[in-house]
Specification:
Number of helices: 2
Strand content: over 45%
Radius of gyration: 16 Å
Distance between the termini: 14 Å
Oligomer: single chain
Helix content: under 10%
Order of helices and strands: EHEEEEHEEEEE
Shape: globular
Strand order of the largest sheet: 2-4-5-6-7-8-9-10
Structural class: mainly beta
Number of strands: 10
Largest sheet: 8 strands, antiparallel, barrel
C-alpha cells in the first residue's frame, strides 16, 4: 500500500464514494471510544465541471432501536445515534474543509469543519481536534476511517 503524501493529495484522490470503516474518539493517553458503536456511514466527494467540490456524509450507529415517533425518549436516542451534513468542500494541502450548508445538527449549518487528511490507496482517514456535540468538553481527536 502506498501512502499519498500531503504534497501529492489531490481533489481527484478524494473524489467519489467512501464507506465508513471506523469512527472513534482518541485521547492523548491512547484511550479510544466508539461513540456510535460499530457505526456505518457513507461519504461522497463530488467535483463539478468547473472543479468546485460538493460533499455529503451520513454516519449512524450500527445498532438502533425501532423508531417510535410517539416516544420523546426514543426520538432523542435516534437523534443521538448519528449525524449527516452536506455542502461544499475544498482541499488545502493536507486538510479538507467542509463548508456545511445543511446538517442534522443545526449548529453546524453555516460552519466550516476542518479535517486533517491522509490517503493510502483505497483508504481515507479524516481527523480533527474540534469537539463534537456528543462530547463537547473536547480533549480528544476524532478519527473517521473510510474505504472505497
Amino acid at each position: 500500500m502506498t501512502t499519498t503524501t500531503m504534497s501529492t493529495i489531490t481533489t481527484e484522490a478524494l473524489q467519489g464514494p467512501w464507506s465508513l470503516v471506523r469512527f472513534i474518539y482518541r485521547w492523548p493517553d491512547g484511550r479510544e471510544l466508539a461513540p456510535l458503536g460499530q457505526a456505518r456511514g457513507q461519504l461522497l466527494y463530488l467535483l463539478d465541471d468547473d472543479g468546485a467540490g460538493r460533499m455529503a456524509v451520513q454516519v449512524v450507529a450500527g445498532e438502533r432501536p425501532v423508531l417510535d415517533p410517539e416516544s420523546d425518549a426514543n426520538l432523542a436516542v435516534h437523534f443521538r445515534s448519528g449525524f449527516a451534513y452536506g455542502g461544499r468542500w475544498s482541499l488545502h494541502r493536507d486538510r479538507v474543509q467542509h463548508d456545511v450548508e445543511i446538517a442534522s445538527i443545526p449548529g453546524w449549518e453555516g460552519s466550516r469543519l476542518d479535517r486533517q487528511v491522509q490517503v493510502d490507496d483505497d483508504r481515507l482517514v479524516l481527523t480533527t481536534n474540534e469537539p463534537n456535540p456528543q462530547l463537547p468538553q473536547g480533549g480528544y481527536e476524532t478519527v473517521l476511517e473510510w474505504q472505497r
